[in-house]
Amino acid sequence: MDLQIAKKTSNTTPSIISNSDLFKMPDLKTTLLDAAYAAGDIIKSYFQGSFHIESKDSINNLVTEVDRHSEKRIIEIIKTNFPEHSIISEEVGALMQDSQYQWIIDPIDGTVNFAHGIPICCVSIGIRYDGKMLMGAVFNPMMNEFFFAERGKGAFLNDHPIHVSQKTDFKKACLVTGFPYKWPDTKEHPIKVFERMIMQGLPVRRLGSAAIDLCWVACGRFDGFWEYNLSSWDVAAGYLIVREAGGRISNFDGTETTVFDKETLATNGRIHEQMLQVINQQ
């Protein structure tokens, strides 16, 4: 799949769609890619520059004027093409319509990184139809990495197909995690799980962007990722990208997760059960 071409035109209706009168897939894809690229251009233009920063519900849960600028542009592009579609976005909240289509947007995932000039941040946009993820795009303009997935069509990084790692030896896994600004109401503190992972001698990274964490699992850089208390806009696009790259995502009890759940475990599938054991160890 050529992302640059897909931005401009698409003449083929994907095989997962059975009724072209109900689905306008080329328009959806073009709109998704246009919105992600437009937001990425905004993010990159402000990166390491001057902009206003505010705190939200905690001192380190930040929002910048760039988040709002990016979000506004994304919504403008979506509404121009699909005014009847619903939108869930981090800053404006839910803009609900009587539609089975739902766009889930994080205008900047990794805002703290962005605010500090750390180039691990991105725009993340996912599309759901009838309760299932249909497409997802994650774009880090500073690294020029564009991840894209379409249900049943695979996952891509800059036009190239990607796949999860083949690693089966959990002791050799490279993992990534994140920590919430508000600790979840769980029977066990997330730090305890982190401690158990590193006590096994495993390398565990903390990048500060769940969307990028998921994409890096999808392309095999990491073998597994877990985190508590994520929001739908953090995981929607990455959720599909991992699955289309051959990975597995679940709750911490091993059951299938949705983008609205608060527990996220994503792996190459081969070390999934071992990670569940460590997470749930008493």
List the helices and strands and how they pair.
Blueprint: H1 3-8, H2 25-46, E1 53-55, E2 62-64, H3 65-81, E3 86-89, E4 93-95, E5 101-109, H4 111-115, E6 122-129, E7 132-140, E8 145-150, E9 154-157, E10 160-161, E11 175-177, H5 190-199, E12 204-205, H6 210-218, E13 224-228, H7 232-244, E14 248-250, E15 263-267, H8 272-279
Parallel strand pairs: 3-5, 11-12, 11-13
Antiparallel strand pairs: 1-2, 3-4, 5-6, 6-7, 7-8, 8-9, 9-10, 13-15, 14-15
Helix pairs in contact: 2-3, 6-7
Can you put this structure into words, describing what you see?
With 282 residues, the protein is of the alpha+beta class. The protein folds into 2 domains: 22-161, 2-Layer Sandwich (Fructose-1,6-Bisphosphatase, Chain A, domain 1); 170-279, D-Maltodextrin-Binding Protein, domain 2. Helices cover 32% and strands 24% of the residues. It is built from 8 helices and 15 strands. The strands form 3 sheets. An 8-stranded mixed beta sheet has the order 4-3-5-6-7-8-9-10, with helices on both faces. It has a 5-stranded mixed beta sheet with strand order 12-11-13-15-14, sandwiched between helices. It has a two-stranded antiparallel sheet with strand order 1-2. A hairpin with a 3-residue loop joins β3 (86-89) and β4 (93-95). The chain is globular and about 50 Å long. 42% of the residues are buried. The model is unreliable at 1-24 (pLDDT under 50).
